[in-house]
Specification:
The protein is mainly β. 0% of the residues lie in helices and 43% in strands.
């Protein structure tokens, strides 16, 4: 059973982009095996193409943790830039069991807010736990 958990992004600061958004590809079963279909995955509710955004957050002890966040959007999501804070709209974490029975986290967002002002700096080396 999956459960949607809304995330207060102010508690995850900084969330830093680590790579440009990439299309999320659809997997299919063919001849008893899973393989890529060659088609971009689409959101079940909206039908819009899905994108994956790789980000880094600090865990409760200040260590970096990598997350991949899905965003459904007709166009590639606009990002502020690599290693800059990413202001997500509607960030959710779904928690469920994988096929092997392990607990998994599935991250998604409804979008990315407008890019920060030009005064934003990369957050690499900032040990304060707050966005620059």
């Amino acid at each position: 059973m999956l459960r949607d958990l809304p995330i207060d992004t102010t508690q995850l600061q900084p969330i830093a982009m680590t790579a440009a958004p990439a299309p999320l590809w659809e997997w299919i079963e063919k001849d008893g095996r899973r393989q890529l279909s060659g088609e971009q995955s689409r959101d079940r509710d909206t039908g819009e193409p899905e994108w994956e955004v790789a980000v880094m957050v600090r865990d409760g002890e200040g260590n970096p943790e990598m997350l991949k966040v899905r965003i459904a959007s007709k166009d590639e999501p606009k990002i502020p830039g690599e290693f800059l804070p990413v202001p997500f709209d509607g960030l959710l974490c779904k928690v469920g069991k994988s096929k092997t029975g392990d607990l998994r986290q599935y991250w998604s967002a409804t979008g990315i807010k407008a890019a920060p002002t030009s005064s934003s700096r990369p957050i690499i080396g900032d040990n304060s736990g707050k966005a620059a």
